[in-house]
């Protein structure tokens, strides 16, 4: 039995994901060409794979930091509604341009909390890059500046997205069979 048996269907192949990341990096390189201090902030743990692949394609002077927030607890497919900061940034961002890198924007709660925290720290600018956007589930009014792919309101796993901390290592993104999480 393998993880692939738990996938109902593949939405985006590894090649499709990598092609879109290349396009996003090209746009980011253009938009931040005049930035003196770009800080890429990866939202852990789901954003790790995307951040690494994107960061390798950013041709500007940029530093990397990580933050970990969560509104999910254990084996659940729904947000608790309360966002908790599990790991904070290690470096100050005052006066710097910040690019938040997220795996997916779903309800928007986590992103809203992070944006509020970063804004209070005096960043020069804050933009958001998400690989996946699920606008149907939005309950908080937030938008990403860079969106890789819009996704349907289904439970997705792979390429950093997880269920109960599993499936992140799939190189593609697929729909998890409901029998796995119901």
What does this structure look like?
Helix content is 23%, strand content 30%. The chain is an alpha/beta fold. The protein has a single domain, classed as Rossmann fold. α1 (14-31) crosses α2 (48-55). Its main location: cytoplasm.
Task: Please describe the topology of this protein.
Elements: E1 7-12, H1 14-31, E2 38-44, H2 48-55, E3 62-70, E4 84-87, E5 97-105, H3 109-119, E6 125-133, E7 146-150, E8 156-157, E9 173-176, H4 178-181
Parallel strand pairs: 2-3, 2-5, 5-6, 6-7
Antiparallel strand pairs: 1-9, 3-4, 8-9
EC number: 2.4.2.8
GO cellular component, one term: cytosol
Pathway: Purine metabolism; GMP biosynthesis via salvage pathway; GMP from guanine: step 1/1; Purine metabolism; IMP biosynthesis via salvage pathway; IMP from hypoxanthine: step 1/1
Rg of Cα set: 16 Å
CATH architecture: 3-Layer(aba) Sandwich
Order of secondary-structure elements? EHEHEEEHEEEEH
State mean pLDDT (0 to 100 scale): 93
The total count of strands amounts to: 9
Low-confidence stretches: none
Strand percentage: 25-35%
Structural class, please? Answer: alpha/beta
Helix content: 10-25%
CATH class: Alpha Beta
Largest sheet: 6 strands, mixed
The third-level CATH topology is Rossmann fold
The N- to C-terminal Cα distance equals 19 Å
Q: What is the count of structural domains?
A: 1
- Count every helix, treating DSSP H or I runs of 4 or more residues as helices: 4
Shape annotation: globular
Strand order of the largest sheet: 4-3-2-5-6-7
């Amino acid at each position: 039995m393998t993880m692939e048996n738990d996938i109902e269907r593949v939405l985006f192949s590894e090649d499709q994901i990598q092609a879109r990341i290349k396009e996003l990096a090209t746009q980011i390189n253009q938009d931040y060409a005049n930035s003196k201090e770009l800080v890429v902030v990866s939202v852990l743990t789901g954003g790790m794979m995307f951040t690494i692949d994107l960061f390798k394609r950013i041709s500007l002077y940029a530093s990397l930091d990580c933050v970990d927030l969560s509104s999910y607890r254990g084996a659940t497919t729904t947000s608790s509604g309360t966002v908790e900061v599990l790991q904070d940034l290690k470096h100050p961002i005052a006066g710097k341009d910040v690019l938040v890198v997220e795996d997916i924007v779903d309800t928007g709660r986590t992103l809203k909390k992070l944006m509020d925290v970063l804004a209070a720290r005096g960043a020069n600018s804050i933009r958001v890059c998400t690989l996946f956007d699920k606008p149907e589930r939005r309950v908080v009014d937030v938008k990403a500046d860079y969106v890789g792919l819009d996704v349907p309101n289904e439970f997705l796993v792979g390429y950093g997205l997880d269920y109960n901390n599993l499936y992140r290592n799939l190189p593609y993104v697929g729909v998890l069979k409901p029998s796995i999480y119901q």
